[in-house]
Design brief:
- By secondary structure, the protein is an alpha+beta fold.
- It folds into 3 domains: 3-67, no CATH class; 87-160; 166-346, Histidine kinase-like ATPase, C-terminal domain (Heat Shock Protein 90, 2-Layer Sandwich).
- It is built from 8 helices and 11 strands.
């Protein structure tokens, strides 16, 4: 028995075999056919065309048949190897993410205990501690917050893609929230004699977003601006409309980003590894998460920069308004406390001087 198959490994009916197509007047161009016998499998590439007599009847057909078995077997082997490699890499990535999640959770528990112990010391023993002891506690607190930020970022990264990020949207006054976040970081900017300004011509605007993730987005960008901007310079935050989008831009006068590195900073663990950025620390995962959060909320983020002249990050969100929640006032009070907590975590590698 001889069975014929097409390139998709489907059985070719007898009336659709290449020879019958030629007899019906069809032209064939590199038609792939596979012939299987109990002993062997052969692959052929068939091209041909009918030749007509003076009465336009098919007189005979010209057929070219090439045995491409070796080529097909090589291609199939390469595809098999690539598939196995992809499956292996997916398993390795899954194991790595599971490991990171486990380790991050294991780190987070003692860090939370350390943070609680520090709060208890400050609350119950603050007046009894010497100045030297308070300085040591401040160092412990600062570095535990740095570790907590790294752990939180790693946990977010191991959640994978944008589709796996959960949003908790509610209606907020976007202008007030942006102003509040900007004002909250001025204490850190003052340590480097940096001036932070907030400028907008929008008095108030209700926007339905995940405000906690927006806080993380803006705090991360502001912390980078403060870290990479030399003393005595300026940082400007602007909020403005553009078509059906609301835009938030953060412009600094820092070291800037080389043109060929602009896309790198948004990659997982991506860093600008050169003299421009060595003055500041970082894990290279903050902006990766920022981009994921922005895109999950339907927005975009871009950056314009000239080395040694600063950088401008621009966040764009579609304007999707909703009625304010009847608990908005209560939520705003909670948000103020949360912003302070998140700011302390995000800015944990910018050390406040003790005066």
């Amino acid at each position: 028995d001889i069975t014929y198959y097409d390139s998709q490994d489907n059985v070719i009916p007898f009336q659709e075999l290449p020879v019958f197509k030629l007899m019906m007047g069809e032209q064939l161009k590199a038609l792939r056919a596979t012939v299987k016998t109990p002993e062997n499998t052969h692959h052929f590439s068939i091209s041909g065309r009918p030749v007509y007599d003076d009465h336009k009847n098919i007189y005979f057909s010209i057929v070219c048949i090439r045995d491409v078995t070796t080529q097909v077997n090589q291609d199939n082997y390469i595809l098999k190897v690539e598939k196995e490699k992809k499956e292996y890499l997916e398993r390795v990535i899954a194991i790595k993410d599971d490991f990171l999640t486990l380790v991050s959770h294991e780190f987070k528990t003692p860090l939370t205990v350390i943070g609680t112990a520090i709060q208890a010391l400050e609350l119950f023993c603050g007046n009894e501690l010497s100045e030297k002891a308070r300085r040591y506690i401040a160092i412990i607190k600062q570095n535990s917050l740095r570790q907590l930020r790294l752990v939180s970022n790693l946990l977010d990264i191991t959640r994978g893609t944008v589709d796996q990020i959960r949003l908790y949207k509610r209606t907020i006054d976007f202008v007030s929230l942006t102003r509040l976040i900007t004002d909250s970081v001025k204490i850190y900017a003052a340590q480097k004699n940096l001036q932070i300004s907030f400028d907008t011509n929008i008095e108030s605007m209700l926007l339905c977003i995940d405000d906690e993730k927006y806080e993380r987005i803006l705090l991360n960008i502001l912390s980078n601006a403060i870290k990479f901007t030399p003393k005595g310079k300026n940082i400007q935050v602007k909020l403005f409309y553009d078509d059906d989008y609301v835009n938030v831009s953060v412009r600094d006068e820092g070291v800037g980003i080389p043109k060929d590195k602009i896309n790198v900073i948004f990659e997982r663990f991506g860093q600008v590894d050169n003299s421009l950025s060595r003055q500041a620390e970082g894990s290279g995962i903050g902006l990766y998460l920022v981009k994921m959060f922005v895109e999950k909320m339907g927005g975009t983020i871009s950056v314009k920069s000239v080395p040694y002249e600063g950088a401008t990050f621009i966040i764009r969100f579609p304007v999707l308004s909703a009625e304010p929640s009847i608990r908005e006032k209560e939520c705003n009070e909670v948000d103020n406390k949360r912003i302070i907590t998140m700011m302390n975590i995000e800015f944990s590698d910018i050390y406040l001087s003790k005066t």
